[in-house]
Structures are given as C-alpha cells and as structure tokens.
Amino acid sequence: xxxxxxxxxxxxxxxxxxxxxxxxxxxxxxxxxxxxxxxxxxxxxxxxxxxxxxxxxxxxxxxxxxxxxxxxxxxxxxxxxxxxxxxxxxxxxxxxxxxxxxxxxxxxxxxxxxxxxxxxxxxxxxxxxxxxxxxxxxxxxxxxxxxxxxxxxxxxxxxxxxxxxxxxxxxxxxxxxxxxxxxxxxxxxxxxxxxxxxxxxxxxxxxxxxxxxxxxxxxxxxxxxxxxxxxxxxxxxxxxxxxxxxxxxxxxxxxxxxxxxxxxxxxxxxxxxxxxxxxxxxxxxxxxxxxxxxxxxxxxxxxxxxxxxxxxxxxxxxxxxxxxxxxxxxxxxxxxxxxxxxxxxxxxxxxxxxxxxxx
Length: 359
Fold this sequence. Notes:
Blueprint: E1 3-4, H1 10-19, H2 27-32, H3 36-41, E2 51-56, E3 74-76, H4 78-82, H5 97-108, E4 116-121, H6 150-179, E5 184-189, E6 195-196, E7 202-203, H7 210-213, E8 217-222, H8 228-238, E9 242-243, H9 247-254, H10 264-267, E10 286-289, E11 302-305, E12 309-313, E13 321-324, H11 336-348
Parallel strand pairs: 1-9, 2-3, 2-4
Antiparallel strand pairs: 5-8, 6-7, 10-11, 11-12, 12-13
C-alpha cells in the first residue's frame, strides 16, 4: 500500500525496477549495470539454471541498451508481436497489444522448463490508453486530454485498467496452472502513477508528486515458495515504506543469492533491500528524478523520497517543496524529515531544477 516508484517516466522507472539501482550516474554506468535478467541467469541448481524471458507489448527502444537480450532465453517486444517496425506505440494502441503479448506468453507456457523467470510487461494503461468499447464500465469516456473533460479522460484510464486486469488475470491463471505442484511467485507493480489535473499536470513525467509515484504492487505465491517466517517478514515490510528498488533484492533473496559474497559489489550499488529480511532500516533518503543520462527529460524535475515525505522540485520552484506522502498534498511541510531530506539532497543534486545551487 505504500509502494513508490522513483520516477514517473517509463524509461527511467523500468530501468530501476530491473536493476535495483537509482538511475543517477553516467550513461556508461547505467547501460552496463547488470539487471535481474543477468543475476537470475547466473543462478545454478546443480547443473541447471532458470529459463529467463521478457515478454512485452512495449517498443524495444524503451531500453537505452541493446545487450539485455543476451541475459535472456526469450525476448519478445511490440515489434515481434506485430511483425513489423513500429515508430510509436501510440499508433497501434487499438490493436489489442496486451492481448497479443499475453496470447504469446500463454502459448509458450507449455514449453517452459520447471524453473522459469519471466518478466511480462504490458502497456495498455499508458496514454492514450487502450479501451475496449465492449467492456468499458466507466462512462462517458474520452482519450483526448482537455481540462474541460478531465473526468472523461480519467474514466478512459479506468477502462484501460479494467481491460488490462482481464489480460493479466488470464496470464497469471495460466502461469499458476502450468506450475502444477511446483513453487511459484508472482510480483506485480506499475511503472508510475498518473495525473488528472493534480498540480496542474495531465498524464505523467512533469513532476514527482504522489499521484505520479504512488504505485500498486503485490507479491503472491504458492506451493511453499515462501517459508512462513519469511511470509510474516514480507507482510510487515509491505505495510511500511517500500520502493521499486526493493524488487530486485527481494527476487534475488527468493533465489537464495541476495546475501552471496559474490553479489557484494553489486549489492552495494542497489538502493533497496529484500522485503524478506527482518532488519532495522535507517530512515529513507532516496534520490528520485525524471531526468538522467539515459533519458533526456523535456522538463527538469527531481527530488528526494523519505519515509513519510518527499521533496519535489520543478523549474519554476524557488526551492524544493516538502510534501507529505499519501495524497494530493499541496501544503509545504517543514519538519525533521524535511530537513534531513534537504541535507541529503545536496549529495545527489548540486543544482535545483531551476538551475540554481542546491544550498
């Protein structure tokens, strides 16, 4: 319930989800950092290793690197699903691309080895939103973004979620059924939230207020995949502050390698923790940004994420705003956590989004 992304642009957020790292650093660092595909691909149980795959209804160009395929056994993107190059995924939003990728995944399930790791990446809830008119319970709706019809746009988004839920349910049901008596785990999240007029924004990417960074997430499991003691720890951790940076550590812990000495150098560069670890955490101070070497944002905006507050800044702000997490907050707060976040921000951001020194 308190899961946050560290960006509200897909390109940056997905990079964090797959690597467990904040997306600050040079392009060389970001495009050569190992991902969850690499780590899981290296797991061994005797002479066997997991089968690793990525199924996506997004463009391959979402990643600013071409080596990710080498860490997988199967790699499917929007271009593969449609059988031709695609300049912009918006042009094919009405071709039911989420259904196509789930169809492909379900078709391949009988051939998957018993040990398999799959990332299924769907896109129908991304603007301009896929709506199936035959199953659109939220009426009236329209996909054109206008201030006068904001509620209609929001209903289009709700209808897109409704359609996507049906496809995800089909994929998850098929996956669980294919596992039979084998242990299984499903981790679900979204890359970012969405704005419908809050803070004068529509869609996403313009800021890092809570409506754009508060995301859904869950961990489901069965057939003894998670021990009872670990389940209790997971439930406790899930009730507290969590971020996308916790996903890779948790997955690696499920594979039993998170605390491996061989992972030490990589673990040190990750910004999260395993949700299966019962540890006392230091107060959170994570850099969040929609701008980086791997993605040139059209509007400078960045800040910090704490346990109960966030710093957010845009080019017209004289300083970072400190706002409480958990709603459409427009009220600046100044408390001990805000002061701590401001102090911590200087190590990551020498400049404010307005170009002035972060003092």
